[in-house]
Amino acid sequence: MLPQIGKIDRASFDRSIFSRLGHPDASVLIGPQHGVDAAAIELPDGKVMVVAEDPTFGMPVIMPYFGWAIVHICASDVAVLGVRPRYMTICLMLPPGTEESVLDAIWKQVHEECDKLEIAIVGGHTGIYPGIGYPLNGGCTMMGIGDKSQLTPPSNARPGDRIIITKGPAVQTTGTLALQAESALAAAMSPDLLQKAKSRFHEMTVVEDALVAAPYANAMHDATEGGLLNGVYEVAAASRTGVTIYEDRIAVPEETRAICDYFNIDPLISISEGTLVIAAPPDEAEGLIGTLQEHDIPAWDIGEITSEERTIIDSKGNPRPLSPVAVDPFWSAYFSTLEE
């Protein structure tokens, strides 16, 4: 059975999609893989085109920031391959009855964020369709052109690489739930802490993280559904390696801990668009962390790529298997706020 919400699981992907990828083409360097952010297509003269596709659904809380989210979520998937996003197309679907002011507000944000990131909007489709409750990015395609030598796919981690993360876990969970459940949380948190949690919404991007980290990295991946632990697992699985990470090295910000405790969810396995997982050679790790911090991007070394088991060591030194996350707890928490 397919998951009831979110991305399909690895087993379903392998059964239904992975063996049916159309006509083979030797120019496809990185094709569809579960847990891999973008594709890479070989061009002449040592160049590559990186292509990523993502939807964004207009949950009520996100609407004031919908255009921002479309651009940054899509652009992040190109940037994690070490290439600057350059071109974008978008399929924007609106429900019947949408006011022109709503379209205008969304598109103004899309334009402004693309302008800041030096991304040209080169095409797309916009229309009104029944059957959807909120505006929907039915598919944003982001493209970038770079050198083949720049590529940092999650499949490129190597034994001995250090695992570096940015910003901490559950970034998207923290920002989204803080905005969505603001009234309820105001009775359980201080105003300053709640404001910090809400501000994490605009950290839900790894474009800058990835472009800063790319010269140091072998592999990069955005920790989206399944959160930080799933993101680390996907790097190891894509690279066919082991990994050991240490739970007590994972800094959980106070506002993230408060939000996750309120909803009784684990921050380490909750959706975290905005947390970049980086595999970097050990002699590059210190310089990488320092450079990220110079750009006001917090970063930590939480473990290493190994040749065998995939393991997480808890705060008492006890190991347990690192496994893929079947169901992200964010979704049940989010929909509980809608029911309220």
Explain this structure:
There is one protein chain. By secondary structure, this protein is α+β, with helices and mostly antiparallel strands. It folds into two domains: 130 residues, 2-Layer Sandwich (60s Ribosomal Protein L30, Chain: A); 186 residues, PurM-like C-terminal domain (Phosphoribosyl-aminoimidazole Synthetase, Chain A, domain 2), CATH 3.90.650. The chain contains eleven helices and 13 strands. The chain has a seven-stranded mixed sheet with strand order 8-10-7-11-9-12-13, sandwiched between helices. Strands 1-2-3-6-4-5 form a six-stranded mixed sheet. A hairpin with an 8-residue loop joins strand 1 and strand 2. Helix 2 packs parallel to helix 7, helix 4 packs parallel to helix 11 and helix 6 crosses helix 9. The longest helix has 17 residues. The two termini are 29 Å apart. The model has no long low-confidence stretch (mean pLDDT 93).
Q: Name the CATH superfamily classification of the largest domain.
A: PurM-like C-terminal domain
Fold-level CATH name of the largest domain:
Phosphoribosyl-aminoimidazole Synthetase, Chain A, domain 2
Question: How many strands appear in the DSSP assignment?
Answer: 13
So, CATH architecture of the largest domain? Alpha-Beta Complex
Uncertain segments: none
Describe the main β-sheet briefly: 7 strands, mixed
Overall shape: it is globular
The overall pLDDT, averaged over residues, is 93
> What class would the helix/strand composition place it in?
alpha+beta
- Taking Cα atoms only, what radius of gyration do you get, to the nearest Å? 19 Å
- How many structural domains in the coordinates? 2
**Numbering strands along the chain, what is their spatial order in the largest sheet?**
8-10-7-11-9-12-13
Write down the CATH class of the largest domain. Alpha Beta
Question: How far do the termini sit from each other?
Answer: 29 Å
How much β-strand is present in the residues? 15-25%
Count of helix runs: 11
Q: Helicity range of the residues?
A: 25-40%
- The oligomeric status of these chains comes to single chain
